[in-house]
Design goal:
binds flavin-adenine dinucleotide, alpha/beta, globular, 19 strands, single chain, FAD/NAD(P)-binding domain, five-stranded parallel β-sheet, 29% helix
Length: 432
Amino acid sequence: MKTNSNYDIIIAGGGPGGVAAAVAAAREGAKVLIIEQTGCLGGMGTSGLVPAWTPFSDGENICYRGIAFEVFEKLKEKMPTVDKTKIDWVPICAEELKIIYDDMLIESGAKVIFHSFVCDAESENGEIKSITVANKAGLTKYTAKVYVDATGDGDLAFFSGAEFQKGGENGELQASSLCFAISNINIEAYKDIPVLNAGNHKSQIYDIISDERFPLITDDHFCDHIINRGTVGFNAGHIWDGDSEKVEEMSELMMKGRKIAHEYKNALADYFPDAFGESSVTATANVMGTRESRRIIGEYVFTAEDYIEKRSFNDEIGRNCYYIDIHGEQRKNTFYKDEKDHGEFHYEKGESHGIPYRSLVPKGFSNLLTCGRIISCDRMTYGSLRVMPTCLVTGQAAGTAASLIIKSDCRATDVDIKLLREKLIENGAYIK
Ligand SMILES: Cc1cc2nc3c(=O)[nH]c(=O)nc-3n(C[C@H](O)[C@H](O)[C@H](O)COP(=O)(O)OP(=O)(O)OC[C@H]3O[C@@H](n4cnc5c(N)ncnc54)[C@H](O)[C@@H]3O)c2cc1C
């Protein structure tokens, strides 16, 4: 097998976590490579067509700063349909976001190889020796000084033998959704439609659910955002029993997801002809919207108690305020009644918690870091930490820490926390 040893830091996966890690590390002067299985950067925000950022503010302050806020502001500038003063639930145009990530990566000096899958790793006593990448050139071994797992599923950590947890006690997982876009909508008529999402008990989504003509629309999860002129992006409906490791089942669920998208379009055209009468589905995500997979056990496991107590940490690298949002079993075939039924826990305005650096370090590993939704936490707080602004924040921290590991030639656990925090603050991070 060929070997490539051209890089200091290799990042598996180019979603929000991976891009932020790469940009942060390259801005510190490291030679960085992202290995990405699709043909673009951005992960769920681009390939996954997730149509909006979760709130960037805690109700009083901007909670996700540094590279996260940079991406957010750049995208707003590019979107003619977005109110530039808006901070919370701002829509995402996936095509614009792809270019923003491309440009940020190129400007930082980091490199990416697309259509390349990290499929194996060799590790010894908590040190990754090499990883194997599959692509059109066949199998290639890559070696680097530090690796960052930003795959969203913890593939690299898993292949390296890191400890992980997945789902609940009985293996139950949050529901998935295949996001999609519908175009040629009459936006003025669309704006007149009463809110359709769960929580609005009078929403006509409940009429659609009980309408026998639309059997694939079975629950009230419905988020819709104007992502471009005449185009609305949807994160709607739940697909149950999706486990990213069960590839045959996931492939069937992808096909089901596409059918669901078309059924939504048909239902919306039927119920709201003024808005959707002339519309069509113009995109379905090319990756399943998997909300839950592996959580890599780190040097610290962030817990629900930490979240509820709004704890700050001496090794805090950023903050998070998103609510605990678990698309769990309790939503299956039930309608939204109150927040408890929905598996939610919300902060008050201005409240947030710290994210410890130790939650980015897989237990016992010297040259591996994690970022994005796989960081070390319990199942409850995974429901909060998994969102994109938080993933960008942990990505920036992982990339900065990786560059410090190289500069000081130390283990991941021995990073100079004071220096890490100083660098992050210098680069815009929000840390208490
Ligand atoms: C249906 C759904 C709706 C959501 N809604 C919202 C929302 O409204 N707002 C919000 O902010 N967040 C939302 N989220 C959460 C958020 O989108 C994800 O949790 C977040 O994108 C995770 O970021 P990440 O960088 O960890 O992983 P991802 O975004 O999943 O990116 C991982 C990247 O790694 C690549 N990859 C994976 N495995 C490999 C491998 N072995 N080799 C090479 N490349 C690999 C993937 O192709 C991908 O590009 C939603 C998630 C889902 C699933």
